[in-house]
Amino acid sequence: MLDNLFAYALTAVIVLGLAAFMRQRGWGIALPLIALGVVVGLAPFGPAAPPEPEVILILLLAPLVFGEALSSSYLDLRRVSRPVLALAIGLVLTATLIVGGVVSLFVAMPLAVAFALGAIVSPTDAVAVSTIARRASLPRRLVSILEGESLVNDGTGLTALRVAVVAAVAGSVTMLNAAGMLAAAVGIGLLVGGLAGWGMSTVLRRSRDLVAANSLIVVAPFLIYVVAEEFEGSGILAVVVAALWLANAQHADPGWSGRLQGTTVWRHVTFILQSFAFCLIGLEIPEVFSRLGSDEVALVLVLVPVVLVTLIGTRFLFVGLMVVIERSRDRRRGVVRDQAVRQAVVVAWAGARGPVSGLAAFSLPLVVASGEPFPYRDVLLATTFAIIVISLLLTLSVAPLARWLGVRGDDDAALAQTVDSALARAALERLDAAVLESDTSGERIAPEVVDRLRSDCEERLDRSALQANEPVERPTNSVAVLQLARAMVRAEQEELLRMRDEEGLPDAIVRPRLRDLDLRLEALGT
Fold this sequence. Notes:
526 residues, mainly alpha, elongated
């Protein structure tokens, strides 16, 4: 047993070491970690693939998806809700049906099994897509669309898979039953996720022990997923909703004390889980392909290009139709989007698959109602893994494609200067109010202290740029002065959130500055 523990521990260290090496150089970690998993799986020594990979993947994916959603913005996603929902629901269902139909034409497999394959490979992966979108320096709107799609479409794909599996196991399923299962999965997922998000935000807001409260949040995604699935809901959707609720609550309250600590914890957790999830996919590839016979290998070689071309073609056609509809709506409103077609090409091409598709494939039952093996199960697994690897390889071209098309990230320099100036003015207004109040009460603040605080804000107004990690020098040992300095930072936080809520300032601008203000409050002490 100690030998097995040593092998797993050594593999974990190697996995995280490789991931850290790739991350430091700004490279993607998905493909190298999958390759590492394949090497470990083929080696005569080291850990073998786990006997119940679907359980392991759930243990990894529930908190992983939670962490990815926690770093997303509900407000930014709400602004692009129309394309997100179209891609996450409409495209997944469309691709499931088209892939299933095309596969059934090329391979003599039951239609329900072909639809199951379509449901497995249709959703994009949140981890892979988020990494690709950010490394390609895409505009915020495109990043929000791609991240929102990849977070929400997992629930649609897994629900469609559930319907296809029921049809394959039981023999048939009516359209009414399929629609009812989809509606129930979405409704229950939203309900469980909303209740969980509200409960977690309440616990964190009222807790005096942030270590214990954040520890509770770390393990909560497992329970959220299991509860939603127990009631025939979408566990992935529930986890995403809960995380978005919690993230929005944390960044809507300027006095939220655990925001900085919680963000740091989940950055570490997400990085570790990302690394293990991709390595596990690679670890399973030799195990799955070793079970295939020669006829099944030939079948996989046919299915992979057929499914891949069908997925890419369907995505391009669907996104193209969305652009036509959106441009027609824009013309009626007199809105002009110069790069709409170019951005649509990037969105259509950035459809990476990842660990969620692996989880979906492993969830296929071993037998059908008659007791016979589930038809083509290993073929579906092998095809899924091949699609994951190839799609990740193809999306390496997203950044060059975006540059070639002239799709660039947003230039936030002017907006950042405006925000920083507004925050400095808010701090000055709070300082003036405090000085006036102290003069009225007869407990005047020392003029040198006021001058020092004022000069700091005026200097920031002059250069219009915050130095986020600049240490805060305490002017005196006076508690009143520290309270005043903290009140000025609070004023900046309130002004920043007001600009977000009333003027539509994007969270991509808000959250880094909110973190800087949290750091300044922490430097000022309590």
